[in-house]
Amino acid sequence: MDIVCVEDNEDFTFFLSKALKNQENIEYGIYGLAADALMALSNMEVSLPKMILLDIDLPDKDGFSFLRELRDSNVLKHIPVVMLSSSENPRDIQKACQLGANAYVTKPGGFSQIKVLVQDICDFWLRHHRNPAA
Amino acid sequence: MSQNNMIKEAIKNCEDEKIHLIGSIQSHGYLLAVSKEDYCIRYVSENVKLLFSGVLLGKRIDVIDQQIDTSVTGSTLIELLNTQLRTENFDGYNPYHITLNGVPYNLITHISSDFIVLEFEPDSSETKGLEINSFLGDVLIHLNIANKSLRDILATTTIKLKELLGMDRVMIYQFDDDWSGEVVAEAKESHLETFLGLHFPATDIPRQARVLYVKNKTRHIANVFSEPVNILSDQNITLDQSFCQLRSVSPVHIQYLKNMGVSASFSISLICHGKLWGLVSCHNYSSKFIDYKTRKASEIISSYLSNMIELKTEKKLSSKRAENEQIVDTLDKQIREDWNLRTGLSGHQVNLLSIGKAQGAALCMQEEITTVGDTPQPKDILRIVEAFYESDINEDIFHTSSLAKIFPFAEELKELASGMMIIVISRELKECIIWFKPEQLESVSWAGKPDKVISQGDEGHYSLSPRTSFEKWENTVTSTSQNWRPYEIEAATLLKDKISAYLKLKANEMRRLNYKLTQAYEELNTFSYTLSHDLKTPLNNIHSYLELYVEEEEIDLEDSFYLNKALANTKLMQNMIKEVMNYAQTTQGEVEFKKVNIYDIIENIISQLTKDSNDCFIDNQLAKDTYVSGNSVMLFQIFLNLIENAVKYQNKNADCFVKIYNKQYEDKIEFYIEDNGVGIESQSIEHIFKLFKRANKDSSIKGSGVGLSIVKKLVSKHNGTLEVTSEVGNGSIFKVTFNK
């Protein structure tokens, strides 16, 4: 799997998957609950995703706790995490950075921008970025 | 020496006369003083040789004891003194009846520091004892008729005392605040001219005489024409004669009585609440001796009278007091109900004038004057207030019945404001309440023109001679109001306390409201942030769906008017939400003040703004060391928005030019951002600082209408001010002022 998305807003999930489908040869999974996402990740130990797209507002736990658990895990700590949130609050951005997020992106206001963003992310994190060996 | 100073010295000399150490007695009696320790005779009046034989000074009292017939009372002089000393009771044995050479005498004793003073007076009243007792009973019953007015009681007393004393004239004399006095009751022989209603100046009864009147309540002068008899002594200190019955009289006073034609006088103090209220003053036009028992009886009557006066004035005062307390309570209630000092004190039927007898009142608060009743013009009131706070009067409650005496300029206000009572609410803010009393033209009848006659003695001292004429002399008192009554002053004091309590309450309430307001403001800020955040997501979704629809249905937007408008509006709304969040965010939080270099900030902004386009010349004219105390991020935002605006609204017909300069003052610093842009229409100027208001309707210039709101908010967070002057077509000048 290439990208794991943790996102609970159904509409945004819809746009995200549409945008991801436009990308060629990308495998992705979208999870509405942090718990589901963690479960899936622990089952993927053999082939970890190349990156995670993570929202802050989640129904079961917030994105920050998710991120903390990820970074505390020996297996998962190297996976790049890009925060994708509607919050522009500098405190949220700073917190994400402190907890070890690799990037912070605010949700765009329209589908065309979402497409551009997904394109950029895939280009950078899947095609240019080199992950340390797990 | 000026006339005035001469008078002052003369009065002082008169007041300095030590009349209790006069060293002589009146000639109708005899005086001896023995040491308390050994009964040795230390003082004798020169005339005792008429009573006793042999040298007395230095001898023990035994030397006269043998000559005295004490058979009436039974014990010897020594036995008497022993008992008196042992029981510490002298008055209880007075008078002691003795016979000398077959003549009856009253012996009156008292203690004067280390000495026992023995005074011998003729006893003319062997059988009068019983009569006096029944007379006293009769008088007291007469006085004790409850519903009699004070005036009636005083009149009755003079009649009864005249009957008892057999004097030609008995007057009751009441002191005023300034120790001048007025005859308020009189009983006299019918052929005599009345003194009733006449005023006597304060100098008629000088201070030290008043002091003695409080100590020793009776004073008898039997014959003004008799020569005083010196007291001889082997001691080097003068005998203190404060309590001496026979004490001789100051020559000035003798002259005074002689000028009035009086030959004998007798006076009794009336003391109310521990203070000399007045005197019972009795005159006889031929010499007259009043014996001890009669004097005692009249003293009893007078002390009973004092009590009656106390009771009557107390009663009058307490009913006035109760009435005023109720008024003050009502005022207090009104203030609290209105939650306003001004209306509470002046806007109801019960107002500042309900207290006492003032004709006008003014409330000076927050540089505004509210008046009730007849008062001077506000500008004159202001003048009085200013003068009061600049004077050295430190009392928080002050009253005068003659304002012009304190502030001469008030002479012209005398018709309405001769009397003034002021209570201070705040010295710092010059806030107060003032009551005014009008001038009361009062004609005062003086007993003789109260001019002092000053004569220069041999040693060059100025002394006061009593006036020689006591003929009624009329004098009109001007620039003076009725006196302020104790209950008026008390009510004002009470009101002052109530106002202080109210102001304290109000201050607390303000603090509470202020706190709530701050909280509400913070909440609103948080709320607008949260709300816009929550609105953002669905709006973004709508926008995305629209875009998707357009994309997937392959619609040409040029052809779809509705979709085009829908997309444009969602975009507009997205922007607005973004700006609201921006506003909420930038204006949140307290400013931590630090020294910030504004020159650097402007340079920074210029490089940022000219990076993308270079179509405007921005001139930073600040000195390199221009500092303001504030938050650097916020200050950056302030200048960025202002300069950005200046560049944004440039005039298409001129080369864009923006300059930033400042003016320094002692306590503030002003920054000017001046452009040659399109300018702002005057009717729009007041709106430009409001959220989402844009003066410029040119849709080609992008803007949200939030920038200046943020600037305004940030400037006020720095306790600064933001002003703008503008001319359409010629540009605008924004002025930002910060305190230093």
From TrEMBL, chain A:
Residue numbers of 4-aspartylphosphate PTMs: 55
GO biological process, one term: phosphorelay signal transduction system
InterPro entries recorded: CheY-like_superfamily (IPR011006), Sig_transdc_resp-reg_receiver (IPR001789), TCS_response_regulator (IPR052893)
Top-level taxon of the source organism: Bacteria
Domain Response regulatory: 2-122
Protein's recorded name: Response regulator
Any Pfam family hit: Response_reg
Listed SMART domains: REC
Sorted UniProt keywords: Phosphoprotein
Automatic annotation (TrEMBL), chain B:
SMART domains: GAF, HATPase_c, HisKA
Reaction it catalyzes: ATP + protein L-histidine = ADP + protein N-phospho-L-histidine
GO molecular function: phosphorelay response regulator activity; phosphorelay sensor kinase activity; photoreceptor activity; protein kinase activator activity
UniProt keyword terms in alphabetical order: Chromophore, Kinase, Photoreceptor protein, Receptor, Sensory transduction, Transferase
Residues annotated as domain Phytochrome chromophore attachment site: 149-303
EC number of the protein: 2.7.13.3
Domain Histidine kinase: 530-740
Biological process according to GO: detection of visible light; osmosensory signaling via phosphorelay pathway; regulation of DNA-templated transcription
PANTHER family noted in UniProt: BACTERIOPHYTOCHROME (PTHR42878:SF15), TWO-COMPONENT HISTIDINE KINASE (PTHR42878)
Family: In the N-terminal section; belongs to the phytochrome family.
Name of protein: histidine kinase
Source species: Fulvivirga sediminis
